[in-house]
Write a structure and sequence with these properties.
With 329 residues, the protein is mainly beta. The protein contains 3 helices and 22 strands. Strands 1-2-6-5 form a 4-stranded antiparallel β-sheet, with no helix packed on it. A 4-stranded antiparallel β-sheet has the order 4-3-7-8, with no helix packed on it. A 4-stranded antiparallel β-sheet has the order 9-10-22-13. It starts with a helix and ends in a 10-residue tail after the last strand.
């Protein structure tokens, strides 16, 4: 009988350990990417991928506006997809996910939303963001293409600093945080107006072009993150499918990243030095409250530049699974 009690006790301990290992701790369930693959007036196809985790996933359910739910289909690895039907046209829907196994269910929020097309309007093509792991010490991963693009060699959209949508005219008269004069900027003129992560000033997530357009843990890169990228990669100016730019190859793992020469900036409605230079946005301002951009050219030079907030420049996002920036004010 004593031996039997020990066996029962041992089995109980093993079951507890098994439950702990197979439960779904929400701290380990992080979305690597998410997006709408297809979008019409009344439907949307959403695809998500989880960051590698030790948890065992059995089902993933998409939950969206109105308390509606639909189980997602396992595509491969940690990728899941679902088609949402009978949606209202020209309507914004917010999505989160319930992830379950036989032991527990947790809610994973990605701060993701999409808007269906208007009646009779052909929807814009959508794309799921992707990143490349360059083995950087910080763990930050870089997007494979710019916001507004669908592949690495496309220039994508151009954004004034702190704005989240492209436009036709880039000058002070159209700048979001200005009433028409550089001397009357209305936001980000004092230190207290910044969000702060790891003692670094950053844009509020609602003003971050990468986060607003892609959601999840995507955001605009900092100056430090650009410097880390440059210090751990070799650089080569080359052409890809007729588009000039810089290829960065990681010295850590050999993976690479292509940055097209999308021009210096849009000012008024003109683009300067397209396919000759490429200036890319950071989430930071300099001491005079001008923006800090990284610029490279066909000559092989790479420099930091201070320029006006109202200029339109491309954004190459970063993905940081450990970052809390997406919930910054």
């Amino acid at each position: 009988m004593k031996c039997l009690r020990y066996i029962v006790l041992l089995v109980s301990v093993l079951l507890v350990v098994a439950c702990e290992q197979l439960s779904l701790p929400d701290t380990e369930l992080i979305l690597a990417k998410q997006g709408t693959v297809e979008l019409t007036e009344n439907s949307a196809v959403i695809e998500i991928e989880f960051h590698p985790t030790a948890a065992t996933i059995q089902t993933v359910t998409a939950c969206y506006t109105g308390g509606l739910k639909k189980e997602m289909t396992h595509v491969k690895g940690l990728v899941y997809r679902v088609e949402l039907k009978n949606l209202q046209s020209d309507t914004e829907y917010h999505v989160y996910y319930e992830v379950s196994n036989v032991f527990s269910t947790v809610v994973v929020t990605g701060n993701y939303s999409f808007k269906t097309a208007k009646k009779g309007e052909k929807p814009n093509p959508t794309v799921t963001p992707e990143y490349v792991d360059l083995g950087l010490p910080s763990g930050v991963k870089w997007a494979t293409f710019n916001v507004g693009a669908t592949k690495p060699e496309e220039y994508g959209d151009y954004f004034a600093w702190g704005e989240t949508k492209p436009k036709e005219l880039y000058d002070w008269s159209t700048y979001k945080w200005c009433d028409g004069s550089y001397n009357t900027l209305t936001k980000y003129n004092t230190d207290s107006e910044y969000g702060v992560v790891d003692n670094k000033k950053i844009l509020e997530s609602s003003d971050d072009a990468a986060y607003v357009n892609w959601g999840g843990n995507w955001r605009m890169p900092s100056v430090d993150e650009w410097n880390e990228l440059l210090s751990h990669c070799s650089l080569k100016w080359e052409e890809r499918n007729g588009v000039s730019g810089v290829t960065l190859v990681s010295v850590q793992n050999g993976n690479s990243l292509f940055l097209p020469a999308a021009g210096v900036y849009y000012y008024d409605n003109g683009l300067v030095n397209l396919n000759v230079e490429g200036w890319y946005r950071t989430n930071s301002l300099d001491e005079s409250r001008g923006t800090i951009s990284l610029g490279f050219s066909y000559t092989g030079s790479i420099n930091w530049y201070a320029n006006d907030r109202c200029f339109g420049q491309p954004v190459r996002p970063v993905y940081d699974p450990q970052s809390e920036q997406t919930t910054a004010p």
